[in-house]
User: Fold these one by one.
Assistant:
Number 1:
Amino acid sequence: MTRPAILNPQAVPVTAVDGHLPAVADGSLTPASLRERFASPPSWQVEIPGDGGLFANRPPAAAAVLVPLVMHEQGLHLLLTRRTDHLRDHAGQISFPGGRVEPEDGNAIATALRETEEEIGLAGRNIEVIGELPVYVTVTGFHVTPVVALVQPDIELQLDAFEVAEAFEVPLAFLMNPANHRRHRFEYAGGERSFLSMPWTSLDEQGLPREYFIWGATAAMLRNFYRFLSA
């Protein structure tokens, strides 16, 4: 099935907010608790395995992303990036650092670590990989393995200006609370598409509020992470 791209997701109507679902308890969002959860995973089901039909006829490609959880004293924060506007895939969108698997990569972890260092300058010596989430299939044909890791705080990043416009952090507790998960429905000739968003507002350098619209594959993988932690 061929589908059009969603060019302005913020304008797509919100159909529901999942405030009826419980948030992951704060005690489950600590480094020790996450290590234990991945070491002895529960029985659970992936809620969103992928975006569905492709909007472009492309052969499938393996990819991996890092889900970097920065260990601040006040709690874990997820480090995300905003892609530059000129990229071919997912331009301007909020994403995890990561990319396509290369022949020299031994596994998904190697890909995620290599891409993370290339994109934002975060070296593997500052990263503790604790597990993986199930593969997610994007609308652009990528089969993405999310690699979850703990990251040392106070790390200086060096962004690849060609791919990454900026990097920012969001409290993990915010993302693991479904009261912040919005459902959207995009209608087009011949069908419709549903997606989640998790808009995060922070202050810019001038102290003014700025919204980061987390949606699409990034939001879907975070929703699967929520299901894993709340199982």
Note: The CA atoms of residues 165 and 229 lie 30 Å apart.
Number 2:
Amino acid sequence: MNTIGTVGVAGHGQVTLARVVRCEWIKLRTLRSIGLTLLAAVASVIGLGLILTGVTANRWSNMSAADRASLNPTQLSVGGYYLAVFVIGVLGVLVTSSEYSTGTIRATLSAVPKRLPVLGAKAAVFAAVTWVLMTAAALVAFLAGQAVLGDHGTTLGEPGVLRIVLGVGLNLTVTGLLSVGLGMLVRSTAGGIAAVFGLLLVMPAMADLLPASLANHINQYLPSNAAMALLEQHREAHTLAPWTGFAVFCLYAILALVGAALVLKRRDA
């Protein structure tokens, strides 16, 4: 589907960012696979959270005092975040890399010769959709999870709880932006997904192989660990402050998008 081609026709050939954004929105909402994948991300946040809280509530009477004391009902209810990270990561890569695999990127860039509005529109549309859906999913997961836990749960008014719940949507949005940038930078679905997983999974595992004194310093600045600082209710040793960690995570996404912009301007489609 070459909906982007309508940008140059509408309004007597004038290409505007608003029209490019509209075309990217049409692409996103008309591709069934993307819609189903987004629903899978929502389902993973809500469904896994309900499973985790349900199992915990069912086992409560058999849990030790130490296990009960260490339980974090907020993190338990939004535990589906960990699965959603990879769903959103894959989808973010596909938003950009799929046009290269099908060859439709040539038509897209012919309609928008300046090129950069294409990347900006893709990133903006995907970020907005991800933020709305994932924030809503996290709120539903939290409220439903606390209802399941009953007297063992918590409320949004407790210190750090609202930050964690909203942080799920924020972190997944930045994950999507990072993936969009890497997908455009690599121009390959397999390569982009490998790059996302390498940053989020492989790098922390490799850092753990280093001596503890060095690993403790490096780990906190790695993208997945920096992002997790926003989802911790209480700051632990060798971790960044919540909003500092989020800022570091945002920096990774910005670097990926800047790199993608440079590649998009300099390379042929």
Note: Confidence is low (pLDDT under 50) at residues 1-12.
Number 3:
Amino acid sequence: MIATSDTAAAPAKLHAPAGRDTLSDARRMRAPRIALRPSWVLQAFLLVGVLIAAAAFFTTLVSWLGAWRATPPALALGAAGLLAFQVWHRAQPAFIDIGTDRFAAFSRAGACLVDGRLVGASQWGAALLALVVEDGGRRKTLLVAADSLDAESFRILAVSARSASGRASG
């Protein structure tokens, strides 16, 4: 049987699963992974916040209970804050991929933390970038501090995120 021109000229996209674009999949696989360092600035702000909260709790309880009786609850609050800090620190991404229609963040172990479309991005000065990613109907916010990457990568990420979020909302 001889192939007709209709089957020979069929585009490759027709053979892909419904809703999939094979060209976009090829571009996604080649997206560069950007490595993130832990942000010392964000860590310092969070730790100072935990210390301030424990000190404020202590000073509130001192007037009612006295110094000796106010110390254990204040230390417990500080310990709970430090445990929450550890959980937050472990949940921070180590690598990110940003493409034309996809944003993904990965842990140090390679597990995907978020994978979806950028739906918003804002930047505070030259220090912090907040990325809003829609992942399976849920929105997640990812903070990327300027000290977690080199200056050029941060600038490229900020520009890419703003342009990708503009396309996602339009």
Note: The domain at 93-169 is CATH 2.30.29 (PH-domain like).
Number 4:
Amino acid sequence: MSSTSEVFAALAPYGWDQAWADQFTPHAAEGLLPGRVVRVDRGQCDVITAGGVLRADTAFVTPHDPLRVVCTGDWVAVEPGGNPRYVRSYLPRRTAFVRSTSSKRSEGQILAANVDHAVVAVSLAVELDLGRVERFLALAWESGAQPVVVLSKADLVPDPETLAHLVRDVETAAPGVPVLTVSALRGEGLDTLVALVGAGTSVLLGQSGAGKSTLANALLGEDVMDVRAARDVDGKGRHTTTTRNLLALPGGGVLIDTPGLRGVGLWDAETGVGQVFAEIEELAQECRFHDCAHDSEPGCAVTAAVETGRLPVRRLESYRKLVRENQWIVAKTDARARAELRRDWKRKGAEGRAAMQAKRGHLR
């Protein structure tokens, strides 16, 4: 069995630290090996250990809850031998990036675990979809990771003034989030990104065709990930990356590359939505009613800010959309929240009917 110093030397490049070692102590007493999951595929996973990459079965840690299955980025306890070899447990996650699936059962899907930075790749080859950027950022904030927006393919916007305008638009949609412009083709902006992801673990997210695999190759310094050209008509590409892969970066840090996400559903992301729309949450503190829906209520500071031009109407509409979506997904999975939502609907319906009756009485 490897010594403690050998384990640290082998696993430190993948994020192993004293806190993880302390948590692993009970598993070490059982003779299990520490390792980090670098890839998961149909009940099997590849785990990097002090002795190299091992293939292990996850049957012992496959509960009914899809959010508790073994995921890329997990630190696990693996059997030292056996055929097949099994993962026996995984350490409590520090962070977890979760989205809702497209299934009618409204299940959550964990994309990556123990992530420090969530790098959202947005292609400048197509028109910016700020609403989608806000959606990604809501999930990123909710995960506990620090979001970063990377505007990729910057070489396709040769006019500096136009590029600066696009950056300002994204910065407005991403308060408190670094926004970087990168051209992997020309190597521009990569130094800043390398420095940012050089400490800790980063997950690379974005739609198909956003240039994630090209970015991953640029960060890795070699063509590890397959790259395919995006369609010129809409900038979309096929899923170049089909699994989530964890890779150590040559300059330090760890990168998890993910398949392109066509659907980015919220999953219990109330805190994340509030972080993305921090200026609206701050304005809401000044509303006359604490449960103001920022629609037609008197004394609403949010709608007043829209009327005076302080708040773009697009931001408010996007905020309303994500709040409604998050309430819906929580209500579908939480009986108490579902009951509260029904009561809220009934209350607002009663208020609406009362207002209409009062209006009719006034007209008479």
Note: Confidence is low (pLDDT under 50) at residues 226-242.
